[in-house]
Amino acid sequence: MNFSDLGLAEPLLRAVREQGYETPTPIQAQAIPAVLEGGDLLAGAQTGTGKTAGFTLPMLHRLAHEPVVRDPRTNRVKIRALILTPTRELAAQVEESVRTYGKYLTLKSMVIFGGVGMQPQVDGLRRGVDILVATPGRLLDHHQQGTLDLSAVQFFVLDEADRMLDMGFIHDIRKVLAILPPRRQNLLFSATFSDEIKELADRLLNQPALIEVARRNAAADTVAQTVYMVGRDRKKDLLKELIERGDWHQVLVFTRTKHGANKLTDWLNANGVTAMAIHGNKSQSARTKALAEFKTGDLRVLVATDIAARGIDIEELPHVVNYEMPNVPEDYVHRIGRTGRAGASGEAISLVCLDEEDFLRDIEKLIKRQIPRQKIPGFEPPVGERAEPIVLGHRMTIGAGARGGRGGAGRAGATGRPGHAPQAGRRDLPREHRQDGAHRHDRAPARPGANTTAARPSADRPAARERAPMRLDLDLSAPPPRREGGRQGAPSHGGGARAGQGHGGRGHGAPDQRRGPGGPRPQRPR
Hints:
Layout (H helix, E strand, L loop, with lengths): L9 H9 L7 H12 L3 E4 L6 H14 L16 E4 L3 H14 L7 E4 L6 H9 L3 E4 L1 H9 L10 E4 L2 H6 L3 H10 L5 E6 L4 H10 L4 E4 L10 E7 L5 H11 L5 E4 L3 H13 L4 E4 L5 H13 L4 E4 L14 E4 L6 H8 L9 E7 L4 H11 L5 E2 L15 E2 L5 E2 L11 H4 L10 H4 L99
Parallel strand pairs: 1-6, 1-7, 2-4, 2-5, 3-4, 5-6, 8-13, 8-14, 9-11, 9-12, 10-11, 12-13
Antiparallel strand pairs: 15-16
Helix pairs in contact: 2-3, 3-4, 6-8, 13-14
């Protein structure tokens, strides 16, 4: 089967041919006809198999053959298609695909996300847009401030829906659905196909066609996976050894935390390996610069947290390294899915110390295969080394060494072991340690008089400074602690009782809750 057999318009086929594609992938071959028929769709496939083109091409075809909708007062083109993504990088990537495949059509598209100024986005929306790609937080910002009209939306695409749920966007999704017209075509695409995704589909979709071209949570067969067992303190040296021995020039390295990404980046640069980090604490300009240099090959190593796992699409990326194993098994599939894309071959290397063996077993259980293990002399775990807790904060510990520990979340919680609540590994963590940026606030300053709402979690917002989780260890038999220079028992300024920092505060984790012009009121501790 060729793309020409799918019933797409000639301008789209011309753009596809220019990209070097003739044969559709399995997800494209099934999704494109289903979308052209006009019904709702629930589609799942391995990451890197062409899901974006699977909904972009038929959507462009249908929009091109239907009349443009204009505002009767301003004659402005109204938005007819909305694509919602979880991260900035993925939003930019999807909108680039829309422009690439629609280059011979007269349709207009744009992308909006947080971390950048709103005014250029407002100006673009005023000029009129047919297709809008957005992240949830910034989309709701524009709607709240009256700069966005979604009343004419005919197509709604929820891309990477599993990541949306994983990052706590369900409430934002519901708010978006509430402002969309009831009659529309809904498309839900996902890299993994969990029971939670099907539950969301039951509420969102109307008698959808169901496409699942691969078994759930499977890694692509084109990715060669290898585990190197390594001593806890030898990971950096082993990574440098593998890069130099293999003469690798484009390596995507994943860490568990933003601090770990920065620390590893500094070490690599200090030891002669050019590297940059990309995560939620980086400004949008820094993230864009790092990704652009990595794509062109000017940057040898890009160190990323899981927030970037869905937004990095690089043709023939040869190497992905799990410098730290993810504590949520599904994240492993998304990480290594950055290589071996579109049928190309790739290599996924995991550096595993004794502390992470539980994570490795959970991953192997998820993907239903054992990953080959290797040891390199001089880097293997030293004799007598034992598993230790992995510390994410002052009191939060995970991993094999955390079992039964005083501050540890243990196997049932922090390791995300299958058999417990869905995504337990992420959701059982305190908010400070959920995946990078998942609870951050990027609410733009509201115009005076505009209604404001409590800040929502979003990966497309600038990250707040990391805080240690608050833990209350109460001993009622002991006298209250005495503070130097103050009365007994008075809370310190850095404690969890500060507005928005306690577990009951709605503004939890926000960098600054002080009221600004039109901004939200600071939350009182409850």
